[in-house]
Amino acid sequence: MNSQPVLRTSASGSPRGSRQKPAQQPSQKPSPNRSPGRSKSTLPNPYHQARRKRAASRQKRRFEAVFARIPMPTDLGSHLQGLEMPAVLQPTPWSLSKALSLLLVVGALTSLFMLHTAEEWFVYREDVRFHNLIRLRGDDLYQIADLDGWNIFWLEPEAIRARLLALPWVEDAQVAVSLPATVAVNVIEMPPAAVWVTNAGNYWLAANGAALPVATLEESALPELALPQIIDSLQEARVIGDGPLAIDPQILTSALALVEAMPELDGIIRYNKSIGLNFPLPDPAVWVYWGDGFDMESKLENLSVSRDLIRNAEEPAQILDVRFIDRPYVR
Fold it and tell me: Which of 90, 199, 327, 328 could form a disulfide with 302, with the two C-beta atoms 3.0–4.6 Å apart?
């Protein structure tokens, strides 16, 4: 039996006893393109370069996809994110004129905003001038006219005039408004008809009975007027109510008519609630109870007859009462 030789291997896997050729080491020659001190790991890796190129390509495609969804001027439609765009913003061959129109609209809106918010367009006391005032005060008229703090574009001259004409002492008023915030008011005052003398002070009386304190006037502005005087110490002739102070128009009318009919009164007449109008006469020296202003002609006739009787009487009289036309009496 032929026996085959058995080869024993070493731990490295090569037959024992065989001569093994050492492995060839790679060349360590330096590359002419790099410095001798640069290690092998810093060399550009072709795999990494390709991966970076692919990532850059993907990023570029993403940006292109995003920008593709943004409408460009050449393809702006009438809708933007589901909203219809104004026709003025849609691109047309007249885009320049539409842009100018849009600027004009914005400018107009800005101007309107400035006109309604800037301080110089609002009216205050120093911006209002009242002319021809004699007895009325400008500050009082300013409050009644309701001008404080209003924008000049919201003021209506006719409405201001109507508020002033509602005053009993204003006969007429003309209102002129000018920019930026100036109001000129020409006032025609009601002339006074008499002076109401009371313990609380003296008052001018208009023909309609309205009373105006004389204390509010400056002496330099007062005209020289000789007005009838109604002496009513307790203001018993005043109109009862919560309105402004005024005398009863009927009492005022009667007093003025009586003063005109009897010049000897020197324009002075009195009023008392219990006996009405009353006054002293110089000839004969007697005190007359006149009462109200009704039946003026009958009372004047009774007064004339009674005065003749008093002059011819043996005893002087003190009081002549003509309040009741059917039975005047002397005592």
Answer: 328
- Does residue 276 share a domain with residue 177? no
Co-location of 221 and 266 in the same domain? yes
Side chain identity at residue 318, one-letter code? Q
Residue 146 — left, alpha, or beta (φ > 0 → left; ψ -120 to 50 → alpha)?
A: left
Q: How many residues does the chain have?
A: 331
Mean pLDDT score, 41-53: 62
The residue whose two tokens read 């502005």 is 221
Strand order across the beta sheet in which 128-131 lies: 128-131, 182-189, 170-178
Six token digits for residue 148? 């404080």
The neighbouring-strand residues paired with 206 are: 192
- Of the three residues 189, 214, 237, the one that is the final residue of a domain is 189
Let me know whether 152 and 208 are in one domain.
no
CA gap 71, 193 in Å, rounded: 83
Check whether 106 has a pLDDT greater than 90. no
CA distance 151 to 295: 55
Q: Taking the model in full, what pTM does it have?
A: 0.61
Residue 233 resides in a domain: yes
Residues 238 and 271 in one domain: yes
Helix, strand, coil % in the chain, rounded to nearest 5: 35, 25, 40
Query: Where in the sequence is the domain holding 288, given as residue range(s)?
Result: 192-330
Nearest Cα to Cα of residue 130 among 58, 183, 181, 60 = 183
Q: Which amino acid is at 297?
A: E
CA distance 248 to 261: 20
Examine the pLDDT at 20 and tell me if it is beyond 50.
Answer: no
Q: How far is Cα 284 from Cα 266, in angstroms, rounded to an integer?
A: 15
Contacts for 252-259: CB closer than 8 Å, 24+ residues apart: 252/193, 252/194, 252/205, 252/207, 252/209, 253/293, 254/290, 254/292, 254/293, 254/294, 254/296, 255/194, 255/228, 255/230, 255/293, 256/193, 256/194, 256/228, 257/293, 257/296, 258/290, 258/293, 258/296, 259/228
Tell me, what DSSP letter sits at residue 215? G
